[in-house]
Amino acid sequence: MKTKHITAALMLLLMQDLAVTQTWAQSDPRNIATGPVIPDESYSDQPYIVKTNDGAWLCVMTTGAGHEGATGQHIITWRSFDQGKTWIDKQDVEPIDGPEASYAVLLKAPSGRVFVFYDHNTDNLRYVKGDNPPYKDGQVKRVDSQGYFVFKYSDDHGKTWSAGRYTIPVREFEIDRNNPYQGKIRFFWNVGKAFAHKNAAYVPIHKVGGFGEGFFTSSEGALLRSDNLFTVKDPAKATWATLPDGDIGLRTPAGGGPIAEEQSFTVLSDGSLYCVYRTIDGYPVYTYSRNGGRTWDAPQYLRYADGRLVKHPRAANFVWRCENGKYLYWFHNHGGKFISEHPQRRSMAYNDRNPVWVLGGIEKDSDKGKIIQWTQPEILLYDDDPMIRMSYPDLVEDKGNYYITETQKDIARVHPIDKQFLDVLWGQFGNKKLTEDGLVTTWSDKTGKFPQKVPAPSLADFSVRNNTAGDFRSKNTEKGFTIDLEFSLNDLSAGQILLDARHAGEKGWLVRTADKKTIEIVLNDGRTQSVWSCDEAMLKEKQSHRVTIIVDGGPRVIAFVVDGKLNDGGDTRQFGWSRFNPYLQSVSGAKDVEIGSRIRGVIKTVRVYNRALKTSEAIGNYHAGK
């Protein structure tokens, strides 16, 4: 077994070294490669953190030498005194040669005692019953999502853990009785952070009905509450209640699908509980409790403050209340009916967790109590490889700074988050400021006659030769640009050219009307071309529109903001944003930008920025009305 672990560790070091030699020093802090690594044993999941009373960050992680769910999966903890740059005091909460121990969350008591809650295959079952197919003979040999929900504690800030393991009695629900064992064996797991509220301890749990296509075939959320865990000296004497009242947990809205899982909770300023969770319906779900989790409002699909539905796949979507009383929400900004109506929606909905987007939340009053209103999203993190999936984050605030942890199941990392980025996000609702940072071209119509010309702005290349590499490979500059224009067209037929910065051979960039009454941007370097359009039904004939086209060279994303609304694909596309070709080198084209070379209408203003604007800045430009 030791040889296997050494081999896995060496392989990880080699892979990390290879990654360094194949890339260059990233400067965009949103790129996950920039984050300090949290050590693991190969597989890494749920790197969750609490700040202990001796000033350390205590990180718990599910890890192992194999892949997710493999034998040897167990729980470890690390401590850091430098905000995750280095880690010490590794502890095995459960041994690697014991039954599977998985999916741990931490909770610190007011006394400083720290609890760790996790799944434990105490009976050491080697398979459980599942659907056949996809499981041969109906035997599911991955056994990390069943057994008992247990905890240990530490009175020395995570340097050591109690020898005793304590089982939490979880009340049986309908979903348990309907499983293949009629509830005698329970299926469950947890990724939701534990929290304290009114001197009680709360720990989420996600109940599972069965295993089949997409692994979990039905699921719902519950909360475990102990009123005396923080006060009893002997944790075995802690009492537990399973919430909500009744026989059914937190599910999807009426008519929704069978998956309602990975519930994430936060406490509002008036003591209300807020919960969001994932589905396979193409949208996340939220609900409020005004009585400590005993009952909940009818679940609803999450919406932005402007009423549009938030899209999200079958991936973790977490909510945090920050120390300033505002909120952050982690999600992936795509989905809709393209997931809910897909024949393999249980499994395909796991895809596309890159990039990560965030919303900012502000409390508002309602007839029932406080509610959260959500801004439109910004990109928080990404990886250069679209297939890399990052998830299971945690938010840490330390000395006025913000940090996010995440894992792509092979490497877990810590990422400092720019406070200014968050302030701009939270300030989005009242933003009416025209952004001038990076503005390189400003034009407004003086004559009403077209076409007109202005000097083409100098834009950075997306990709350049890395002269420090032995093979002179390419490197991503992470640079981008933004086009912000106001126009009115008499008709929206395809082929009208609003802006043209190409020279002979098509090299450069172009904005034109396209099919389905949209406008599109064309990026061309003479050998590679990328095209993306705004959403359908956003533009109207003979109506003034403000369109901001953001070309973000970090994640290589093109996004449209039309009249202050970031396009999300609506009912016609799963994605409102697009990744452009990573081999696209430059869109430097003609010396002039021709404005309105073929239009039936007027172009009123054009602004070009030599950087990718934030969504919030584009919205501010729209509301500035300039």
Detailed description of the structure:
This protein has 626 residues and is mostly beta strands. The protein has 2 domains: 2-16 and 35-430, Neuraminidase, CATH 2.120.10.10; 439-624, Jelly Rolls, CATH 2.60.120.200. Helix content is 8%, strand content 39%. The chain is built from 6 helices and 43 strands. Strands 29, 33, 38, 39, 40, 41 and 43 form a 7-stranded antiparallel sheet that branches. A 6-stranded antiparallel sheet has the order 30-42-34-35-36-37, with no helix packed on it. Strands 12, 13, 14, 15 and 16 form a 5-stranded antiparallel sheet that branches. The longest helix has 21 residues, at 2-22. The radius of gyration is 26 Å and the shape is elongated. The termini are far apart. The model is unreliable at 1-24 (pLDDT under 50).
